[in-house]
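Figure 2 data, in text form.
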Amino acid sequence: MSNSKAVNKVVLAYSGGLDTSVILKWLQVEYDCEVVTFTADLGQGEELEPARRKAERAGVEEIYIEDLREEFVRDFVFPMFRANAVYEGLYLLGTSIARPLIAKRLVEIAEATGADAVAHGATGKGNDQVRFELNAYALNPDIRVIAPWREWDLSSREKLIAFAEQYQIEIPKDKRGEAPFSVDANLLHTSSEGKVLEDPGAPAPDYVYQRTVDPEAAPDAPETIRIGFERGDAVSINDEHLSPAELLTKLNDYGRTHGIGRLDLVENRFVGMKSRGIYETPGGTILLAAHRGIEQITLDRGAAHLKDELMPRYAELIYNGFWYAPERDMLQAAIDKSQEHVSGEVDVKLFKGSANVVARRSEHTIYSEAHVTFEEDAVYDQKDAEGFIKLNALRLKLLARRNQSAG
């Protein structure tokens, strides 16, 4: 192939799997350039040293393998959960929220190594290509992005394997032939798409689920845990203070045991098509319930309702790849302001796929038993409600009279 602009060095987001191993060699062959590999530990639960060995065997001299779990949860997952963000009412954005961090490190490593391009393994049909590239351009407007799936003719699994065999690239045994589905994973969730999941009219096979037990097989006795919050972020479980990544890891363990966080979703991709995905977000599902629980007693009605109005827009920005856009920053500032008094403790009961708030307490509570009691009180005059109702009913009465006369 002929490239309109030569590339001297490219930083590749590299997992060590078949696709990115082929991309590594393809970049070396087609662009005749040096390749730097970047492999991030975002809590996907896989060994990363095999990726290093594969990169070394491919002749890569600059290999970056980084544990980004704490940064991922602290600077990306937690700010998103302050907003209670869900896409299309259900999806907790587990894949979406990882992309801005990966793009950030790709750009930073490119600067550190003198690379003039970055590359990713996202296909031309999905959302990730958009997310990687929008986030990269937001951080470095002059960076060049190479997306092999939009350039090469290796359009099938058979062609990828043939290319790998031609260049003696190690092929994972389970990748020979058609993979049943593709998986993306990090500390927040797993996402499974494609192949056996492409028919939305067919239930997902049991083997698709990897992070949670079947809720029907979960323990027959419920378990209640206490989650502590400070300024909107979870900081402890059962009075044990934990780092952000430690806390989410522990919530994942609780969620796995009790079969919490499964989602079968047909969503609208940013590129225009619908796709069906199976998501597992065990710890995140518990965290969302708990965060809403502490907000119930610490947020004013106006702030709480405004947050709920802003949330779909905020979630869509993350889903579409606009984490570093000014409008996301603006919304984040408003959301973070709302969390100044969102501190306290929430008890969450876990049982066979459900996470239900059963108690909440806070020194910053706005809840007043004196005002809501059904018993006699000295702080609220029920007669005041009459004028309140009359004023709110005035326009409704006027409309009703007009409609009656017009009829």
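Caption note: The two ends are 75 Å apart (CA to CA).
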